[in-house]
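Supplementary Note 3. Input sequence used for the single-chain structure prediction.
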Amino acid sequence: MKKSQVSPLLALILTVGGIAFSGSVIAAPDVPAAPAIGSTIEDFSLPDADGKEHTLNSLKGKNGSVLIFVSVQCPVSNAYNERMEKLAQDYKAKGINVIGINPNTSETADAVKAHALANKLTFPIVKDPGNKIADRLGATVTPEAYFLDANNKLIYQGRLDNSRNGDSITSNDLRDAMDATLAGNSVKTTMAKAFGCAIKRA
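The predicted structure, written as discrete structure tokens, is reproduced below.
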């Protein structure tokens, strides 16, 4: 008697739980696929924290650019602040410019500006309203990097390195790709899965 009463109740709980779980999965936003390595990224225009529009071609260096999707609040992105600034300084003289892109709808332009000042980030950081460029490039997390050559051809996509906190770096994937390209050599690792905080999409 008790068994027949418990079973329907258990079934109901499992059913409701399954619906709730299923709903959470369905609710996750669809992220377009990233362009293939070797694809040419078309020029685009995004506003900086003061509302001034900048094109990719106006911000890139003579030897290329590195687009890094960044965040104000993400602890993983913030753990990379010093490394991103160092990257920008090291490669600016080599003709590759670092460009930060903030795609999070939850982070205002004022917050982006204040964050850059507080963390002494000197490379340009633009906002991505409606995360249109994040969608075009298939970016999913902050930080996530895209290295483009002088002709805006995608050479590398993914993490900057393999260490969240920077204390045990054994693979400098992004720098290796940049150095190989500057030396006229082929890039051994063209993709390395990025890790961080999910982009807060519109």
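Residues 1-28 have pLDDT under 50 and may be disordered. Residues 11 and 17 are 10 Å apart (CA to CA).
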